[in-house]
Amino acid sequence: APLSDSQPASRAVPSSVDVVVVGAGFSGMYLLHKLREMNLSAIAFEAGTDVGGTWYWNRYPGARVDVESLAYSYSFSEDLEQEYEWQERYPTQPEILRYARHVADRFDLRRDIFFRTRVNAAAYDEQGRTWRVRTEHGDAVTARFLVMATGCLSASKLPEIPGLDRFAGATYHTAHWPHEGVDFTGLRVGIIGTGSSGVQSIPVIAEQAAQLTVFQRTPAYSLPARNRSLRPDEVAAMKANYRAFRQAQKESGFGVPTPIPTKSALEVSDEERDATFERAWESGSLVNLLTAYADLSIDQAANDTAKRFIHRKIHQIVEDPRTAADLCPEYPVGTKRPCLDTGYYETYNRENVHLVNLRRTPIVEITERGIRTSDQAYEFDVIVYATGFDAMTGALTSVDIRGRGGAPLDEAWSAGPRTYLGISSAGYPNLFMITGPGSPSVLSNMVVSIEQHVDWVTDAIAYLDHQGLTTIEPTQEAEDAWVDHVNLIADATLYPKANSWYMGANVPGKPQVFMPYAGGVGEYRKTCDEIAAQGYKGFALS
Ligand code: N01
Q1: Which of 28, 82, 125, 188 counts the most CB atoms within 10 A of its CB?
Q2: Given this model, what pLDDT does residue 2 score?
Q3: Are 499 and 506 contacting, i.e. CB atoms less than 8 angstroms apart?
Q4: Can you tell me the distance from the alpha carbon of 150 to that of 54, in angstroms, rounded to the nearest whole number?
Q5: pTM to 2 decimals?
């Protein structure tokens, strides 16, 4: 049955609370639950009409998670963990949204969430030591703490192409998909973008559309997901072993337990390496590929072995050699987010699907009837934009956040985001970000990173209250040192070698810095725990 949306909150926005949470995705929901358990008053504002965040907005056909359901789920409630029944290895967007809605019902979260309400502005009041938060509806609320649970991939982005609003047909962005779905039957469809959203939706749209033309600027590395229904025996085994599994997640590099590789890709024979890559390819797990050898993410020659393996796969699957060549990426494997697909490369063997390589023939403009490249005019009934997000910072800087002295956050971050631990920023006392830039976030199983941040932030608030303190703010020195540390780790990897959204490269004018922390979830957690244990070292408390 189609999911119906939540009703708008019937009560008025309170004038003051302990904590304002912005966003009711996986972060905001767990935060609300946790804060209530601490007997703090908290409300959340959510732009959507229901909970779920990413899984509320991204309803494009074929949308799935690329971390297994039994791992991509909350660990904070053992009852939830034991009782919830996942259906698929890699669940679809509707299945994950159903889970989010189940969590909201189970913990009665909706009564403190104001849906259809975007936060416009938040200003720190130095005298009162509070945040004044304003919504698009003109409501204002004062809070001791402000937590931005706004997600890393939530500020969607249209391409900078002339004529965008000239097109007479229908247009859709993958992150703003109509709730009732789109029927492409018999239509001529153009899609721009071949990141994860494009790679997942292209095979599904191709099955419906009369013709599908894919406009590709940069090809993606994609592995077959090998999705399937979960077997009762594997679910039972996981449920019997969940505590140990969760612990292993916390200590792992990506929030997904995998053996730590010790060998170099260059020290083994070609046969052995091919066999290893083949097992990863067959396993349907990105992490298995990225951790197949110890040096894939740091050594170009090692990485080239994985690149050649995937190129070979693409050429084996895609029948037209020119299309196959166009689908082969040149940047190092893993330096842009790799994709997990269901029948992606195979889709290019369909008669009704055509690939346009924008490196050869760039888009010149969108016209009333379609898309014009440097060598051809294409006519469409529908254009789909799978063009991604202003990642990691977009959702934060689009709110007018003012810290000490009225300093706007987007100005403080004009040369790239500056945080301590990806959780807080100097000049912005009592403001926390969940999975902010400078934390592992997008390089990890998001749910693991979300839970860690929510636990850390709520512990910090409890600590302050227990000590009779009111404010927490990173020192400039601690923040500078953390930014240096994040850069140092990134520079030891191949990540900066690709024009990725990790680098801000997809947004014209955005400063090019590698935003997430690449040192791994386990290491990062240890650092955060040590800092807390030392009385929040690097933070000024008062
Ligand atoms: O966005 P993207 P996405 N002209 O930025 C192209 C997560 N996610 O929504 O690479 C032409 O990756 C752009 O080209 P280029 C996951 O973390 C996960 O697909 O900039 N093309 C690129 O091909 C993912 O990484 C899942 O050269 C233009 C595409 O549009 C992240 O979200 C599923 C263009 C954008 O790709 C974002 O994924 C979906 C222009 N002007 C998303 N501008 C899972 O499976 C942009 N492009 C879990």
Answers
A1: 28
A2: 34
A3: yes
A4: 10
A5: 0.97
